[in-house]
């Protein structure tokens, strides 16, 4: 999407900054900055906003040869309205957009060049409409066929679909997912419905473990739970591991989850173990909250070490 970012209440007008937004493009840029080869498959309109999206991705070193430009639909639009220091409202204009008409043939083209080692998919794509849902289903099947590792970030967006519509799709996907990334409140969407008598443990860690267990039993290799300023906890067949968040001065929480995913997948692509994957993820997540914009503050590999430098540090 093209993104317009205001500086106060939208209805008062004023100037807006033009940029690019989208969970998958944020992850793609995050990974590219860390030195990985990334291809983005998505749809923009054949318009100037679409040109901005593709130009930005190209400038960030992301391969857009699998992207499509739809001559009959506009590029999706998102408005960011910082309403309070801690509260940003977003307004979507994406019904009928090119992204909401993403076709399976487009993702097939993205796969045909060279199948990826990892496919990253979010729960936003299937929420956009029947065509993107089919395209996402097709992508999952292609990834399986090519032996790619599948990472799914649930990213439930209540403005795009209801929990009742999301849950059956996500539950059907679970057996095809290797790395499932979710916030605490999104895990239930991926699980079989709970009976009325089911008891939830009162201890938060035990409650998370109880939700992760059935996902691991259904074949997910790693369940990674993003917990905001509390950090993240990963569950695997061998147990669980928690990493606290890196302390930073938070200026913009939007994009933290995507940056976290980029860090996690970067370490995974490097062949690093679980502890290092989580460590890089909380580091890139912290960069995102400490920087304005969704992806602009994403670190390069040499910059990873900048976090935690004492106030007033000047790097010469
Ligand atoms: P999402 O953006 O998907 O809601 P989170 O808010 O859980 O995801 O953030 C993802 C990750 O970013 C967290 O697991 C954490 O590592 C990091 N993070 C989020 N908020 C903060 C914060 N205030 N300070 C430091 N790190 C944070």
Structure explained in plain terms:
The chain is α/β, with parallel strands linked by helices and 316 residues long. Helix 2 links the parallel strand 3 (43-45) and strand 4 (68-70). 43% of the residues are buried. The chain has a domain at 23-42 and 102-302: UDP-N-acetylmuramoyl-L-alanine:D-glutamate ligase (3-Layer(aba) Sandwich), CATH 3.40.1190. The chain is built from nine helices and twelve strands. Helices cover 35% and strands 19% of the residues. The strands form three sheets. It has a six-stranded mixed beta sheet with strand order 7-8-9-10-11-12, with helices on both faces. It has a four-stranded mixed beta sheet with strand order 2-1-5-6. Strands 3-4 form a two-stranded parallel ribbon. It starts with a strand and ends in a 26-residue tail after the last helix. It has helices at 23-33, 48-59, 104-113, 130-146, 163-173, 187-190, 204-217, 256-269, 274-290, and strands spanning 2-5, 17-20, 43-45, 68-70, 77-84, 87-93, 118-122, 149-153, 179-183, 222-226, 232-236, 239-243. Helix 3 packs parallel to helix 4 and helix 8 (256-269) packs antiparallel against helix 9 (274-290). Bound molecules: adenosine-5'-diphosphate. Adenosine-5'-diphosphate binds next to helix 8 and helix 9.
């Amino acid at each position: 999407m093209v993104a317009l970012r205001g500086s106060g209440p939208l209805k008062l007008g004023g100037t807006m900054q033009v940029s690019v937004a989208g969970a998958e493009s944020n992850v793609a840029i995050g990974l590219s900055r860390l030195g990985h080869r990334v291809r983005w498959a998505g749809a923009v309109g054949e318009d100037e906003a679409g040109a901005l999206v593709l130009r930005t991705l190209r400038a960030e070193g992301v391969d857009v040869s699998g992207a499509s430009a739809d001559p009959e639909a506009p590029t999706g639009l998102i408005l960011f309205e910082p309403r309070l220091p801690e509260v940003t409202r977003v307004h979507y204009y994406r019904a009928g957009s090119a992204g909401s008409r993403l076709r399976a043939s487009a993702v097939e083209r993205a796969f045909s060049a060279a199948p990826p080692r990892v496919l990253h998919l979010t729960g936003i794509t299937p929420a956009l409409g029947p065509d993107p849902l089919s395209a996402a289903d097709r992508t999952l099947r292609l990834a399986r066929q090519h032996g790619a590792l599948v990472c799914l970030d649930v990213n439930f967006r209540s403005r795009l679909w209801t929990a009742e519509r999301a849950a059956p799709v996500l539950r059907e996907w679970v057996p095809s997912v290797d790395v499932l990334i979710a916030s605490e409140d999104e895990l239930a969407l991926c699980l079989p419905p709970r009976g009325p008598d089911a008891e939830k443990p009162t201890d938060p860690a035990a409650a998370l473990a109880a939700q992760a267990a059935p996902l691991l039993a259904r074949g997910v290799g790693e369940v990674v739970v993003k917990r905001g300023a509390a950090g993240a906890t990963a569950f695997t067949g061998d147990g669980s591991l928690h990493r606290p968040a890196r302390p930073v001065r938070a200026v913009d929480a939007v994009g933290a989850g995507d940056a976290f995913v980029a860090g996690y997948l970067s370490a995974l692509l490097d062949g690093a173990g679980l502890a290092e994957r989580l460590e890089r993820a909380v580091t890139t997540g912290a960069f995102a909250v400490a920087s304005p914009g969704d992806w602009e503050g994403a670190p390069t590999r040499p910059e990873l070490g900048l976090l935690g430098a004492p106030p007033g540090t000047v790097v010469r």
